[in-house]
Amino acid sequence: MGEEQKTKPTQHGVRDLRSVGLSPTVIFCRCREVLEAGARDKIASFCHVDRPGCVLSVQDVNNVYHVPLLLLEQNLYRILAEKLQLGDIDALKGRLDLTMNGLEEKAT
Fold this sequence. Notes:
Layout: H1 8-19, E1 27-31, H2 37-47, E2 55-59, H3 66-73, H4 76-83, H5 89-107
Parallel strand pairs: 1-2
Helix pairs in contact: 3-5
């Protein structure tokens, strides 16, 4: 990549959310390429989310059906299940796999 990914716009956006009383649990970062670990750590630290795993990369893809697959790969379902206290994550993962299989077919 050559250049360090910018984190300030995200930090300012989260600061603005906090100023109106909203505190994000998960941050979705739109970027051209996969969000680097250093940028993910920096955003998590400065934006006060639970862990770097709660900062998700939503990079450019060639088909919109790839976006849910990206989020599945980054364990969004686990974060949501934990925060919503859904319990049996394995049962949820099984249902997600069925849904994602349909999306993979559309994405290709």
